[in-house]
Amino acid sequence: RVALSRVRGRPGGDVARVARRIAQRPGARVRPRRRRASDTPGRADGSGGVKRNPNLESPMSDSPLLIDLKTHDDMMRHVVEADRPAILDFWASWCGPCKATAPAFEAAAKKFEGQVTFCKVNTEQAPELAQAFNIRSIPTIALMIGSEVVDVRVGAARQPEIEEMASRLAAKAEKRRQRAENPGVMGRLKAI
Prior knowledge:
Blueprint: H1 4-9, H2 15-23, E1 66-68, H3 72-80, E2 86-91, H4 96-111, E3 117-122, H5 127-132, E4 140-145, E5 148-154, H6 159-181, H7 184-191
Parallel strand pairs: 1-3, 2-3
Antiparallel strand pairs: 2-4, 4-5
């Protein structure tokens, strides 16, 4: 039995020739290579031979509940300087799990309207924001109160998970607001 990895390392080794020879043996099973988009010639539309569903191109909806953050100024105005906590969804148009998370994110935005701000950040259009948050994988959901990142979740999320994150974030923001209004004994001692 010839190992294909040994043939690759040898000068002049022909992997395809060895694979054909192994396939000709009685009882041998060789799986054919999966076709990839790169195997087909590119199309004029730049899709690389892959048909794309135009309805799935952008998980960013036209919902007024979702804020599209594109610049640092948008981030400052809608998240950092805002009076309520925010949930940021980092996504890209080519990302399948991002497309799966988008309807759940919008439904959670409807449920928590007025309590939590829901923002979408397209990592292709706003790479500086993705870099500032050190985003390495998408989808990533970041929970923020002011300028502080409270929690980060990487990977697709279902609606109950997003709603649970939003309720935790709203409760945490409310506790911080109450603590700021009523500093307690230690705050009164500092004031003296």
